[in-house]
Amino acid sequence: MRHPLTIAVAQPAVGADAHAKAIREAQARLVVFPELSLTGYELDAAPVDDFAAISSACAEANAIALVGAPVAGDHIATVRVDADGAEVVYRKSFLGGDELTRFTPGPGPVAIDVDGWRVGIGICKDTGVTQHIEDTAALGVDLYVAGLVHHDHELDELEARAERIARACESYVAFASYAGATGGGYERTAGSSAIYSAGGRALARAGAEPGGLARFTLT
Q1: How far from 19 is each of 12, 55, 66, 167, CA to CA, in Å?
Q2: Which of 24, 125, 136, 191 is the most exposed, fewest CB within 10 Å of its CB?
Q3: Backbone angles phi, psi at 118, to 5 degrees
């Protein structure tokens, strides 16, 4: 039986300590972070393999975190972190721009279980690719989450993608969107992380600045 799930989308400063702080403050069972959240959008950053501080925060908060990081094998990944440790659960399928010279595409859509909720995962460009959306919808997800890095002038596109995914998957959607300056020419990023209904309506939204967080309980 599926129980209500409290989810948060967070946009902290770079680094494990900031992530741990966000997890402790979120008061949520599932906390979703942006693309490459642990390093920023710095495509030459070394793979991340130390998640101890985040795991400790998850243990304190009884939370599961989905963090963004470069990982071994040259992938942009979503890493599931909880009290028991860390596991790479998704590797970005559709790469763009300079990512193609540094990273390898992942094998495709996945769905993970979070307390009986079936959660599909995407990372940034994936969210605009019809094949990815359709293949994730075919997995029968209850919730679609994605970590993003976008310019601040692309908010309309983010809203359109969220609505498209929500309707295709007939599910809630949660976008954790990077906030603040980072590499790759992103002098200003969008922030405004949000959680959407299955009809694509925003249910909760963070502000544009680093440190923001939005929370909602899914039923």
Answers
A1: 6, 10, 10, 31
A2: 24
A3: -90, 115
- Tokens at residue 201, please? 């309506």
Q: What CATH number should be reported for the domain holding residue 41?
A: 3.60.110.10
Contact 203, 8 (CB under 8 A): no
pLDDT confidence bin for 171, thresholds 50/70/90: very high
The conformation of residue 13, written as its DSSP 8-state character, comes to P
Average pLDDT over residues 99-111: 97
Distance, CA of 178 to CA of 91 (rounded, Å): 18
Q: Which domain holds residue 133?
A: 5-218
Q: Average pLDDT of 7-20?
A: 98
Q: What is the DSSP string of 117-164?
A: EEEEEEEGGGGG-HHHHHHHHTT--SEEEEEE--BGGGHHHHHHHHHH
43-72 average pLDDT score: 98
DSSP character string of 64-104: EEEEEEEETTTEEEEEEEETTEEEEEEE-SS--TTHHHH--
pLDDT of residue 2: 86
The string of pLDDT tens digits covering residues 110-148 is 999 999 999 999 999 999 999 999 999 999 999 999 999
User: Cβ distance 130 to 138 under 8 Å?
Assistant: no
What's the number of domains the chain is made of? Answer: 1
The encoded tokens of residue 117 equal 């909720």
